[in-house]
From TrEMBL:
PROSITE patterns: THIOREDOXIN_2 (PS51352). The keyword rRNA-binding does not apply. It comes from Chryseobacterium oryzae. The keyword Magnesium does not apply. It is found in: Cell envelope. This is Redoxin family protein. Pfam families: Thioredoxin_8.
Length: 171
């Protein structure tokens, strides 16, 4: 009986905290989402629009992660593999750390300093994350050469749709 109770409790926790698949696949960002500010490693503020502009004309993969997120850390080796297998694709990492100190620490601890990293200093709930229905991490998005959303929702870097989207955009 005790095992059944534990299983039931774990099942309820999983149901309550699992990612909700967005009801709508969006193909472009709202003006509010694009004006959302993030910070780089040096504390400089930059908008999502400015980040996208830096990568315009290229395919971009956005990886949402945090050092406190066990699922994110388990996915890091596969995310690195995806990046290695796609050397012509740009990758940026949006951190959901809870403080600048944690952001800096995670970049160092998980060997992310050589990558392009940004941190949501305003916290999880902000115009960008609200617009893209971000309710759990990790999460991956593929952005096309015109800064439109080509793959809106993936929770694993091994999702075959990520590579299919990249391959389609490369043609």
């Amino acid at each position: 009986m005790k095992k059944i109770m534990i299983f039931a409790w774990l099942s309820m926790c999983t149901l309550n905290f699992a990612q909700d698949i967005p009801k709508q696949n969006k193909t472009q960002f709202s003006k509010e989402a694009l004006t959302q500010k993030l910070e780089d490693e040096n504390g400089n503020k930059i908008s999502v629009q400015q980040i996208l502009d830096q990568h315009k004309g290229k395919i971009l993969v956005i990886d949402f992660w945090a050092g406190w997120c066990r699922d994110c850390l388990q996915a890091l080796p596969k995310a690195e593999e995806l990046e290695k297998n796609n050397p012509t694709i740009d990758f940026v990492f949006f951190s959901l750390e809870r403080s600048k100190e944690k952001f800096d620490s995670s970049l160092e601890r998980f060997n992310m300093k050589e990558k392009e990293n940004y941190w949501f200093s305003e916290g999880w709930k902000n115009n960008f994350n609200n617009y893209i229905d971000l309710n759990w991490i990790p999460r991956y998005m593929v952005i096309d050469q015109q800064s439109k959303i080509a793959k809106y929702y993936a929770i694993n870097p091994q999702d075959p749709e990520i590579q299919k989207t990249i391959d389609r955009l490369l043609k």
